[in-house]
């Protein structure tokens, strides 16, 4: 009995302290994060945070380089720049070049086949082994400087006490403070989205419903943006997508959706998933018409095209958001755009998204991590910093087919975002390259051999 | 800790590779990071599938033959040393190497070794002769389905006729040297570090 009486005051004190800290915590959360999210204003806290971090990173990198030099350690060189300086040439030019460089044989006598022709293919092959344009797009971009995250550090050895302490401090801040904060916000944001859109679903269709639905979507996405500490700079907002149009953007991660949707309202397109995603999708579509497909419907290209074109024809419906690459690329390049969305014939609003990898790499390598793992990594990075450019709208021109139009849009996005414009298909992440490309090369070479024969028979 | 930190090359290994292949320090570390990025299984060796994952190599008509050249007789895995040894053939010959001590073993990127590499792309059974069949095989790989058997056969015959000197209807290494020697420096690749 006595011992019980002794513990009571301490228990009470503990409870009071916990209660106070929770209240303070939630008030701060509400005032500094949720309320601004509802109204779309910002205190500028994130910008300040970003500047401070940059200074710390510079210092850290400096220390590593100095430490490495002192101890004569080797620094791992990030595999980001091209190893070989290649100039674009054609198969025919190159083979002629080889033959010409050989001797003083004149070109009229050029035989159809020379044994040295294999040198061209040989060299092309080994050059692509040393360095190729495609495979490096499917893994996270490697950084020149260290950002105090072990996941992006390849030189971590005990360089100095100060650096280790700083890194340790970083871990404590990120996992002990930032992560719980962000997870709370994320749950709040998603929860509010599901609940509020379901409520709005009960309203009769009309302007009030659309207005409310837009506000709810914007608010919840803004909370999610803060849940990731995403610091986004929007450029050229006068070009924002309008109703009846299609918005296309380069794809780096699922976060792209949150980034775009927190600044404007879009109709999403996608496959219906099970689980939590499915719940979110079903409730979202109650408030405003998104385009969700069943798994079986995705294969039917005509059905997909029909639903998309029906949607854009209705001018009261929101612009569609599509990622034509079809898969996540690591934000150093833009890969082939699938032509489906460019066949529909409405105005296309291109958007370029470029992430700054110094604060946290946003690329989702789906073969390496699942979705939950990925989100945890995102929420335990320092921040997600990116720039969004709204490019002027484009329409398909006379005599241009869907593929050419898609390439034109892709080139514009690549130029604006400072990304490499590639013709390769993002599907190469998982699948093999089609044989048709090899057959093209073979055809080109055959023309060189046989073409000479035809000339001979003519003369 | 990133797994890459633990598989960094040791200084001694780099020195050995430098001596064997002639690549510079920074070239070796750069190519090592390329090697590890291709090594999806993260076991320190590359398999044929790892090479075939490179799209630009997969569409090369001679892709399979080139990949083969990296793997020693009968083996399915190549480690970093083997990788570098094969790549060394493509290093340009530097001026200061021409006057090297003739007693020292021939460098991997000598003219003769480069020609041997190219010769072996044709000579699949390693009998030091390119037979008509072997030549036809390589031709077929390069032209695909676009040229008929007869035409290809006559191209092969003509080529052997021009190059063959001892009349055995196949091309030996010495005969190949005479044909290829002038062009061989084309395959040099400048690694820009």
Automatic annotation (TrEMBL), chain A:
Keywords: Acyltransferase, Lipid biosynthesis, Lipid metabolism, Membrane, Phospholipid biosynthesis, Phospholipid metabolism, Transferase, Transmembrane, Transmembrane helix. It is found in: Membrane. The keyword Coiled coil does not apply. Pfam families: Acyltransferase (PF01553). GO terms for biological process: phospholipid biosynthetic process; triglyceride biosynthetic process. One of its GO terms (molecular function) is glycerol-3-phosphate O-acyltransferase activity. The chain crosses the membrane at residues 20-45, 159-177, 183-203. InterPro entries: LPCAT1-like, Plipid/glycerol_acylTrfase. One of its GO terms (cellular component) is membrane. It comes from the Eukaryota. Residues 245-356 form the Phospholipid/glycerol acyltransferase domain. Pathway: Lipid metabolism; Phospholipid metabolism. Belongs to the 1-acyl-sn-glycerol-3-phosphate acyltransferase family. This is Phospholipid/glycerol acyltransferase domain-containing protein. It comes from Oncorhynchus mykiss. The lineage of its organism: Eukaryota, Metazoa, Chordata, Craniata, Vertebrata.
TrEMBL record, chain B:
Keywords: Calcium, Cell membrane, Cytoplasm, Lipoprotein, Membrane, Metal-binding, Myristate, Nucleus, Phosphoprotein, Protein transport, Repeat, Transport. The gene is CHP1. It comes from the Eukaryota. Coiled coil: none annotated. GO terms for molecular function: calcium ion binding. GO terms for cellular component: cytoplasm; nucleus; plasma membrane. The keyword Acetylation does not apply. GO terms for biological process: protein transport. PANTHER family: EG:114D9.1 PROTEIN-RELATED (PTHR46002). Residues 26-61, 110-145, 151-186 form the EF-hand domain. This is EF-hand domain-containing protein.
């Amino acid at each position: 009995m006595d011992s019980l009486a002794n513990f009571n005051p301490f228990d009470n004190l503990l409870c009071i302290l916990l209660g106070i800290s929770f209240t303070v915590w939630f008030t701060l959360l509400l005032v500094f994060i949720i309320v601004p999210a509802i109204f779309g204003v910002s205190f500028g806290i994130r910008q300040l945070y970003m500047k401070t971090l940059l200074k710390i990173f510079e210092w850290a990198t400096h220390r590593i380089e100095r430490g490495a030099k002192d101890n004569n350690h080797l620094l791992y060189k990030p595999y980001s720049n091209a190893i070989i300086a290649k100039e674009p040439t054609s198969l025919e030019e190159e083979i002629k070049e080889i033959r010409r460089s050989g001797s003083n044989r004149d070109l009229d006598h050029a035989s159809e086949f020379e044994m040295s022709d294999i040198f061209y293919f040989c060299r092309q092959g080994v050059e692509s082994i040393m360095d190729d344009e495609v495979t490096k797009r499917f893994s996270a971009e490697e950084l020149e400087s260290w950002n105090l995250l072990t996941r992006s550090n390849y030189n971590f050895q005990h360089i100095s006490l100060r650096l280790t302490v700083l890194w340790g401090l970083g871990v404590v801040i990120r996992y002990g403070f930032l992560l719980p904060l962000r997870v709370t916000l994320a749950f709040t944001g998603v929860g509010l989205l599901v609940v509020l859109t379901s409520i709005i679903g009960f309203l009769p269709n009309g302007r009030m419903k659309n207005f409310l639905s837009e506000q709810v979507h914007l608010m919840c996405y803004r909370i999610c943006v803060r849940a990731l500490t995403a610091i986004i700079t929007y450029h050229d907002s006068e070009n924002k997508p309008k109703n009846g149009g299609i918005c296309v953007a380069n794809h780096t991660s699922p976060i792209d959706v949150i980034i775009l949707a927190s600044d404007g309202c879009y109709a999403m397109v996608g496959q219906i998933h099970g689980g939590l995603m499915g719940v979110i999708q079903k409730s979202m579509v109650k408030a405003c018409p998104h385009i969700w497909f069943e798994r079986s419907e995705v294969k039917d290209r005509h059905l997909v095209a029909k639903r998309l074109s029906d949607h854009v024809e209705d001018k009261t419906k929101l612009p569609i958001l599509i990622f034509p690459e079809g898969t996540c690329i690591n934000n150093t390049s833009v890969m082939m755009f699938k032509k489906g969305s460019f066949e529909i014939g409405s105005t296309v609003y291109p958007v370029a998204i470029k992430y700054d990898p110094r604060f946290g790499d946003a690329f989702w390598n789906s073969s390496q991590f699942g979705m939950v793992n990925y989100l945890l990594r995102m929420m335990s990075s320092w921040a997600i910093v990116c720039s969004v450019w709204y490019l002027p709208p484009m329409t398909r021109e006379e005599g241009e087919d869907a593929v050419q139009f898609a390439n034109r849009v892709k080139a514009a996005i690549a130029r604006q975002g400072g990304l490499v414009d590639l013709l390769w298909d993002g599907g190469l992440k998982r699948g093999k390259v089609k044989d048709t490309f090899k057959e093209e090369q073979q055809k080109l070479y055959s023309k060189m051999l046989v073409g000479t024969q035809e000339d001979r028979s003519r003369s | 800790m990133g797994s890459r930190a633990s598989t960094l090359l040791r200084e001694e290994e780099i020195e050995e590779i430098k001596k064997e292949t002639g690549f510079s320090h920074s070239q070796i570390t750069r190519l090592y990071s390329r090697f590890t990025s291709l090594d999806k299984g993260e076991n320190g060796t590359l398999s044929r599938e790892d090479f075939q994952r490179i799209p630009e190599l997969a569409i090369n008509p001679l892709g399979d033959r080139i990949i083969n050249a990296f793997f020693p007789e009968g083996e399915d895995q190549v480690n970093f040393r083997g990788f570098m040894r094969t790549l060394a053939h493509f290093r340009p010959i530097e001026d200061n190497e021409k006057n090297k001590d003739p007693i020292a073993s021939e460098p991997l990127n000598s003219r003769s070794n480069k020609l041997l590499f190219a010769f072996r792309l044709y000579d699949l059974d390693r009998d030091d002769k390119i037979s008509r069949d072997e030549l036809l095989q390589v031709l077929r790989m390069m032209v695909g389905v676009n040229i008929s058997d007869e035409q290809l056969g006559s191209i092969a015959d003509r080529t052997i006729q021009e190059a063959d000197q001892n009349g055995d209807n196949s091309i030996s290494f010495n005969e190949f040297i005479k044909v290829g020697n002038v062009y061989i420096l084309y395959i040099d690749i400048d690694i820009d570090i």
